[in-house]
Amino acid sequence: MGDENRPEFDVGPASEMQKKYGWYAENRSVIRVEVSEVPTQLRELIPYVERWAIPCDITRHDYFDKQPEEDVREFARTVGRRQAEINAWLDSLGDKWSEAGYQFMYLLKAWCEAACIFPDET
Question: pTM for the complete prediction?
Answer without folding.
Answer: 0.86
